[in-house]
Amino acid sequence: MPWYLEALISIPAGLLLGNFTEWWFHRVVLHGLGRKRGTFWSFHFHEHHRNARQNDFYDPCYRRAPLGWHAQGKEAWALIVASLLVAPMIVWAPWLCLTLWYCAGNYYFTHKKAHDHPDWARQHLPWHYDHHMGPNPQANWCVTKPWFDWVFGTREYFVGKQQDARVTS
Fold it and tell me: How far apart are CA 108 and CA 104, in angstroms?
């Protein structure tokens, strides 16, 4: 298959797979396994969510060293390990592998920027803002794009609604 056809198929497939992976991982691992205190994944639900709720979406922990053994470091390490696990695909599906690496990096930097700049997140990632600040943290699992929240019906709207404390009258 010519490289451009492979890229035409693999890049969209990688973007969809990356978005599904963030939806699934967030829902099943971070909010499933992570709800139990003391587990490796509990940092997300018990530290990150607490910080976001207490600080109007801002998470000061993103100011720490990115590869430390703390909530944001574990997030970065998980993305690095996932990227290493798909690395062998570079031989037989290079465009797919490169797209998944892009998705991992995009997830980390988008998530970090969102929690460093809550007003930016509220405007550009309302689905993620809704996940943390809305009444139901068991919805809106996607961070970068809400695609699989739409597919699985887990997108719940909060930003701009009457119960949103930031709605101006």
Answer: 6
